[in-house]
Amino acid sequence: MTFGEKVIDFNTHLHFTGRLPAGIRMMYPFEEGQEARGIMEQFYRKFYNDNGERRMLVGINPGRFGAGVTGVPFTDTKRLTEKAGISFQGGLQTHEQSAVFVHDMIDAYGGLKKFCRHFYFTSMCPLGFVMDKGKGREVNYNYYDTRELTSLVYDFMISKLQEQLEWGIDRKVGYVLGTGKNAAFVQQANEKYKFFKKLVPLEHPRFIMQYRSKYEQEYIDKYLAALRLKA
Q: How far apart are CA 190 and CA 44, in angstroms?
């Protein structure tokens, strides 16, 4: 199988059988979304239709308005159409700040085709979480938000990351998105399981656009310098 077909097979067989804390549910984009599975398949067949070696960028977990809708990490419906050339026919049109930064950075790198030949976005937990706020309202939740949730999904996360590393990932250098709790968790796990020889933390795109947006170009430059690191 090509790299893209491996991603598709992985995504369409994701299932968590364990217990979750009260009020938290797992989000399954490829079962719940109107178009997420079909879009995801188009994307990976279009941009990962080879067996080349790639470096991995490890995010947190899918959010409701990015990968939760499109099935593609850090890609909302606007970027899906404008940058990937894949139409979205569903009713929910999304705009996610993380997607803005990531695709601005990808443009600076040389465009989506070039970026996807060299890199692959994933998440520490490949499935997302939402918390029930009552009255039918749900909000995004992260795997590290409580120790109980982290503990309950720990083995699932580790096994799924290890599975992806077998696809021809360059394990000399890996990147973790988020310099706080996500970096701390991934770095600790990396010490134990030896995912990567070198792990480089980078500020999370959401943090950059929410709190440091006027310095976006500086963070783009930082990302590009890190991505061009020699092993």
A: 27
From the list 38, 47, 50, 46, the residue with the least C-alpha distance to 11 is 38
Residue written as token pair 């070039």 = 114
Question: Which phi and psi angles does 87 have, rounded to 5°?
Answer: -75, 150
Q: For residues 39 and 90, what is the distance between their CA atoms, to the nearest angstrom?
A: 11
Among candidates 28, 31, 25, which has minimal Cα distance to 131?
Answer: 25
Neighbouring CB atoms inside 10 A of 32's CB total 12
Contact 227, 109 (CB under 8 A): yes
Q: What is the pLDDT of residues 172-206, one digit of tens each?
A: 999 999 999 999 999 999 999 999 999 999 999 99
**Phi, psi torsion values for 196, nearest 5 degrees:** -130, 150
Model-wide pTM > 0.90? yes
59 in Cβ contact with 124 (< 8 Å): yes
List the Cα angle 44/193/72 in 5-degree steps.
20
